[in-house]
UniProtKB/TrEMBL annotation, chains A, B:
This is Histidinol-phosphate aminotransferase. It comes from Mesorhizobium prunaredense. Keywords: Aminotransferase, Pyridoxal phosphate, Transferase. The keyword Glycosyltransferase does not apply. Residues 39-357 form the Aminotransferase class I/classII large domain. NCBIfam families: PRK08153.1. InterPro entries: Aminotrans_II_pyridoxalP_BS, Aminotransferase_I/II_large, HistidinolP_aminotransfase, PyrdxlP-dep_Trfase, PyrdxlP-dep_Trfase_major, PyrdxlP-dep_Trfase_small.
């Protein structure tokens, strides 16, 4: 038995468990495909037909490396948001950008503040740099702005994470409240404001983009409303110096040529986006109606999913399992306080039909077991 | 003027200069497209027609996230190489995997050994974790196996990088010599063996894959012979424990759905690969002939480019500039010893026609200036 080259102390201390289980892995384990894929907050409506045609047309160009500057996509994003090109960085989804932010602002042992039950991939990347997570409980199913601020102060955290609209609860804060939160943050604390669902909620929940404030990074994605989760492309908007700092460590050839071009085309088709937003709103109403008809309480949502209150955690887990066994892929939060819920993404009509058909049986099975 | 949240000491110490200039950036600066794109060692022959058709066909499926396990691609790679699925990890190109290896094995201040003038992206990622690069000069236009070994021992390096076949010189070591090198390495030193060009050189340069040796990571890519640089997909093969350690920090959703499926299809079309390998060999002969007809010395190459000895660094730089100004995109090594050369990638026939037409004028201009 030969010796292994030693890992660094930070990496050596990390668990070997793999934290991400995709629906494909579940299908492989089950030996059977899901009939409704409404668990990963994907957009079943797909990308714009213009985007699909463009991607198909450029498949043969994939022998060329991507532009390491992401120039055309940055120009398009900047024009779309009314900021400068120097205020935009593109990454391999928000996930890729979160990994970079962790490395930029978090030294080993530093406290990092998030909400208990918020995006696990953020936590994963903080652990990856040896950061110490401070998780603040949700309050009334919203991330607690006061609690986050207090934790930042107590733990002198260089970094705090907030998603708005929120995943997994679907809740949101109005812009005025977020602005107060931002103004109350220490200048030495960087805020990652994850706005993956920004296109799908009320515009009143989006503070104007203020790139003069050097301790806020806004992150958005093509994975949700734009229906392009599979191409892996997100972007961050911030003060120009902050954006330049990303250049120091990002994988410059990380975002595919396909993704860069698809992103440009997706932003150009705002009519399609509007149609998706309308269909998502309609789907949310339908999910809420199905839930209410079955005695579950739908929470208000500014996203492309609806979180359904099942009453308590043990029962909600049984409902999840019963739906999975009926070939309906959904997910649920697992932390205390949120674990009483299941989370159902807006799918196509026929997928919500299947959900409506299977929910009564799943509830009965959960009650009987 | 507001304060910026402080960067970590490691990131703060890094330069803000952006090290990657793509041909697109040069075209934007020039305001004019290149007529021959033969500078980035891409495969102008493109991906297999089967791969192109498959990519076009799945464009509409891009609303779905990628499989975070990269399961199907790992199974295909494993079968192709005769190793287990547990011996394969997939990343956003070799670049993405190099970034992870740096974080896994290099603590701040650790020495990392490479060759002076070898892959700059490796150096970039080592700098990104605060590693200290020890760069060993090439010997006779090959990476110096003896020099690398000596440096590893002197500096107690936890990590050493070797590309075989080599970029930017096109040279290679035979398998027997590499095996001796590997056997002489300390067990505590991890070797990254970058085999991006492995399909394009003699098979005698590829040691059998030995996953029982825990201090060797072999890296390969779809960017070169498979003609898929734009999709960003590479893989590493190693001991199962080493592969599990990648799971601790990799961006699990980093490799796009498009890339995973294209990779599977590309490996399935080995007939196309063989045709590309033959065309590349023919292109190398043509570039060598053009060089010799113009008094330049082509170096032997096991890659999809030919490095041409122009005599001295100042002259070679002028030749590069003269070719760029004639709309021929090529590159050249810049470090002492290698800088006497320019590097020309195998392109399509019409691109090599342009190179043949423009080289005499470029040489004359370089001599005259």
């Amino acid at each position: 038995m030969r010796q292994h080259p030693p890992l660094t102390p930070i990496i050596s201390a990390l668990p070997s468990t793999v934290p991400f289980v995709g629906p494909e892995a579940q299908e492989r384990d089950r030996g059977r495909a899901f009939r409704a894929r409404i668990g990963a907050n994907e957009s079943s409506f797909g990308p714009s037909p213009r985007v699909i045609a463009r991607m198909a047309g450029i498949a043969r160009d994939m022998w060329m490396y991507c532009d390491p500057d992401n120039h055309d996509l940055k120009v398009t994003v900047a024009a779309h948001l009314g900021v400068g090109v120097e205020n935009v960085v593109v990454g391999e989804g928000i996930d890729g950008l979160l990994s970079l932010v962790a490395r930029m602002y978090v030294a080993p042992g530093d406290a990092v503040v998030t909400s208990l039950g918020a995006y696990p991939t953020f936590n994963f990347h903080i652990a990856g740099v040896g950061g110490r997570l401070v998780a603040v409980p949700y309050e009334n199913d919203r991330e607690s702005l006061g609690g986050l601020l207090a934790a930042v102060a107590t733990d002198k955290a260089p970094l705090v994470y907030l998603s708005n609209p929120d995943n997994p609860m679907g809740s949101w804060w109005e812009a005025a409240e977020l602005i107060r939160f931002i103004e109350a943050l220490p200048e030495t604390t960087m805020l990652v404001l994850d706005e993956a669902y920004s296109e799908l909620g009320p515009t009143s929940a989006l503070p104007p983009i203020d790139i003069s404030r050097p301790n806020v990074i806004r992150m958005r994605t093509f994975s949700k409303a734009y229906g392009l989760a599979g191409i892996r492309c997100g972007y961050a908007v911030a003060d120009a110096q902050v954006i330049r700092d990303f250049e120091k460590i990002r994988n410059h050839y990380g975002v595919s040529r396909m993704a860069q071009i698809a992103g440009v085309e997706a932003l150009a088709d705002q009519d399609y986006l509007k149609s998706v937003v309308a269909r998502v709103a309609s789907g949310r109403r339908r999910i809420a109606g199905i839930a209410e008809a079955n005695g579950l309480k739908p929470l208000p949502s500014a996203t492309n999913f609806v979180t359904l209150d099942c009453g308590d955690g043990a029962f909600a887990l049984k409902v999840l399992q019963a739906l999975l066994s009926r070939d309906v892929f959904i997910r649920k939060p697992m932390v205390p306080g949120l674990d009483r819920c299941i989370r159902v993404s807006v799918g196509l009509d026929h997928e919500l039909d299947i959900f409506a058909e299977e929910l009564p049986g799943a509830l009965a099975a959960a009650r009987g077991s």
